[in-house]
Write a structure and sequence with these properties.
Layout lengths: L36 E3 L13 H14 L9 E10 L13 H11 L12 E9 L8 E9 H7 L4 H5 L8 E4 L9 H11 L1 H4 L21 E5 L3 H12 L3 E5 L5 H14 L32 H12 L16 H17 L3 E3 L2 E9 L2 E9 L9 E4 L2 E4 L6 H8 L6 E2 L2 E10 H9 L21 E5 L5 H4 L4 E10 L2 E5 L9 E5 L7 E10 L1 H6 L7 H17 L5 E5 H6 L16 E3 L8 H17 L9 E6 L6 E2 L15 E3 L10 H18 L7 H5 L11
Helix pairs in contact: 7-18, 9-18
Length: about 700
């Protein structure tokens, strides 16, 4: 299911079009005279009769669990949805307990004098900003943990009020036994080694928190991790901490050289095929917005472990509290440098500029890899390296790797993804749309409220048999993806004859532009309509539009653009487009010539509906850029759910976004972390139960909106 904006409500439809609020369909005879009916999702969480049976059952069990509290004066009371008006809050960068927050806490526990409550008894768990128009006023929304023992010690007069406190689903929760925090990965593996110390230590040797367990060098299993994106880095960290001899193989360059290569691309239009916005240390997410939002459970042990590990390597602690955490490229670069230095201190061999050309396979088992210098066109100087296990952690742009896997008759399953255009507005316009008069408080990321963003989704229903709309499918989703407030549009092509773009921003999000992809989900039916068949049909589908965009731009990495107003009317009236943040140049073109008709019409229809949610979204200053195709991996590599081992070849462990099991920095890191423990277990380095610490592993969906 696609979740709409939490910043702005998604209304069903105008009253004059649908007098029956129970039927959430737009009149098909709308202003655009399109065939599709439209089902719009009203809110992020279904309520009442709209809930699925599984949700009703889960809520019933939760209510039942809340009916009885053994001891109200022990443990933690978690207070949620505490709204503090903007004028009473210190602002987005303050994560402590303010007077305004104490007033809201006092209301919940019905304590008469808020100023008497000791701030030390409360801990801010989550802080977000809610500026939805349905609210009387914008508010900072908090989740707070109240330590009862500390509160009673500092202010005994709260005893009577706590005695009358009762749990309320989604608002007040009692946590009798606060589970100890899972900590970062270094702490988790260190605790495991301490627990197993009697078996792993020899001759009274100590275990260092900064190093791996004391395995005999001759017996240490050798593991190759291919790819240094989030999944590869976290898999390497786990394996190295548990005692494996790890070689981290990356086709691209370290962030320092990678930054210079990207600079050469922007200034001199020189595209390094193996070191660019997609390939290199940290993966494609390094030069992006650095978003740390995820759909696999923000409060889960696994996500918290990843976030705390990022803090350990230099990320600001506010990512643990911020409702929409992000880092930005400027913070990711030093973080990755610290991560690399720690891996090297564990004995990890990091081989930048090294391309894996092939797998070494014996008896259907991967026993090594064949590598060469990625900057040399010839593969004659390749060498074969043997390993006990190979972790394949490539990104979704490693198309040559997919082709290589097919040569070994591996199963590759085509997967749905999304394609579309990237829209760019002046950031001040988005601030005004979302915040109205409060927009003056943004101050280019240095103000009291965060730089405004948006997240919108629409679900389009086509008439049965209406193949002109969607190539035979009956429904299609359009949503905003990778929204970058205060950001810029960047080139993510890995081939000079193709154009593919993405968005990025720095930590302050201080650019004058806001951009986001507007994408439509596509499936095998769409691939077949363009005669794209086989396991890599999705890859060929992507390339079709990337090559076409390059031609429309005229070459030299110039991007084809069209104003939103022209796109909506299918005309080209503007020859000199509005300013764009894309630094390699733009050229006006009719983007209706880019996609098949059904995708273009779906984009038009959705943009019109987005304008209803965000009045002013359709603007003469808004510019559409083509083309966005790499929203997620076009394939999935089947693997065992328990061991993470490939179902086609033993000894190969496909993980992360390129393998089709993640969608973003955090979910990729989580997948790499679980895979690291699974590989360690198969090699005899780990005998514990990681799910008892981090919870059950969850796989992210294909969409990352």
């Amino acid at each position: 299911m696609f979740i709409p904006s939490k910043v702005l409500p998604l209304h069903c439809c105008p009253p004059n079009l649908n007098p029956n609020p129970k039927l959430r369909f737009l009149n098909p005879k709308g202003s655009l005279n399109c065939h599709p009916k439209t089902l719009e999702i009203q809110c992020a969480k279904r309520t009442g009769k709209q809930r699925y049976p599984s949700e009703k059952k889960k809520l019933k069990l939760k209510r039942k669990a809340l009916t009885h509290v053994n001891d109200k004066f022990q443990g933690i009371w978690r207070l949620s949805k505490l709204g503090v008006p903007v004028q009473l809050d210190p602002g987005k960068d303050f994560l402590g307990v303010s007077e305004g927050l104490l007033q809201e806490i006092a209301k919940v526990i019905k304590f008469p004098v808020a100023s008497m409550l000791p701030p030390e008894a409360f801990l801010v768990v989550r802080k977000s900003f809610d500026a939805r128009k349905l609210l009387k006023e914008p508010k900072f929304v908090y989740m707070v943990d109240m330590d009862v023992h500390k509160l009673l010690t500092l202010e005994p007069r709260t005893w009577d009020f706590i005695s009358r406190l009762e749990p309320k689903v989604g608002l007040i929760e009692h946590i009798e036994h606060m589970h100890s925090s899972s900590g970062d990965l270094i702490s988790i593996t260190y605790d495991y080694k301490i627990h197993k110390g009697a078996e792993s230590r020899k001759g009274g040797e100590s275990i260092s928190k900064e190093g791996s367990d004391n395995f005999s060098t001759s017996k240490r299993p050798k593991v190759a991790v291919v790819g240094s994106g989030p999944s590869g880095l976290f898999a390497s960290l786990v394996l190295a901490e548990l005692g494996a001899e790890v070689a981290l193989i990356e086709r691209g360059q370290a962030v320092e050289q990678r930054g210079r290569d990207i600079g050469a691309l922007i200034v001199r239009r020189i595209l390094q095929l193996e070191s660019n916005f997609c390939f290199g240390e940290g993966g494609a997410g390094t030069w992006s917005d650095g978003k740390l939002v995820t759909r696999i459970g923000r409060n889960s042990g696994s996500v918290l472990a990843v976030m705390k590990t990022l803090v350990h390597f230099g990320a600001p602690e506010n990512i643990l509290v911020d409702g929409k955490p992000h880092l930005g490229t400027d913070r990711l670069i030093p973080l990755l440098r610290n991560f690399r230095q720690h891996l090297e201190s564990l004995g990890v061999t990091i081989r930048f500029g090294t391309k894996v050309n092939d797998l070494v396979v014996e008896d259907d088992t991967v026993v090594g890899v064949e590598v060469s210098d990625s900057r040399e066109k010839s593969e004659h100087n390749s060498q074969k390296l043997r390993y006990d296990a190979v972790v394949l952690a490539v990104g979704h742009s490693a198309r040559d790797v997919y082709q290589m896997l097919l040569s070994h008759n591996m199963d590759l399953v085509p997967k749905d993804f999304a394609v579309g255009l990237r829209i760019e507005h002046p950031q001040e316009l988005i601030n005004s749309i979302q915040y109205s008069s409060l927009a003056a408080e943004v101050h280019k990321g240095r103000g009291k409220v965060p730089v405004a963003d948006y997240k919108v989704v629409k679900y389009l229903m086509g008439e049965d048999g209406d193949t002109s709309f969607d190539s035979g499918a009956t429904s299609r989703s359009c949503y905003s993806f990778c929204m970058c407030p205060g950001g810029q549009v960047v080139l993510t092509s890995t081939n000079p004859s193709e154009i593919c773009i993405n968005g990025m921003s720095f930590s302050r999000r201080s650019s004058r532009w806001a951009n986001a992809a507007l994408v439509i989900n596509v499936s095998s039916k769409d691939f077949k309509a363009l005669n794209c068949d086989g396991p890599l049909a999705g890859v060929e589908f992507q390339r079709e539009f990337e090559r076409k965009a390059a031609i429309m731009g005229g070459g030299n990495f110039v991007v084809p653009v069209q104003t939103v107003t022209d796109f909506m009317e299918n005309k080209l009236s503007v020859t000199s487009p509005p300013p764009s943040s894309y630094r390699l140049g733009v050229k006006t073109a009719n983007l209706h010539e880019l996609f098949p008709l059904h995708i273009t019409e779906a984009l038009q229809r959705s943009i019109a509906m987005f304008d209803e949610e965000l009045p002013g979204f359709i603007s003469k200053d808004a510019l559409l850029h083509g083309v966005e195709t790499r929203t997620s991996s076009p394939i999935q590599i089947p693997r065992s759910g328990d061991t993470y081992e490939s179902t086609s070849l033993r000894g190969l462990y496909p993980i992360g976004e390129g393998a089709g099991y993640a969608g973003g920095i955090v979910s990729a890191a989580v997948d790499g972390m679980y895979a690291g423990f699974a590989v360690a277990k198969s090699l005899g380095l780990y005998s514990g139960d990681i799910e008892s610490i981090l919870g059950k592993a969850q796989i992210a969906g294909s969409a990352k909106y």
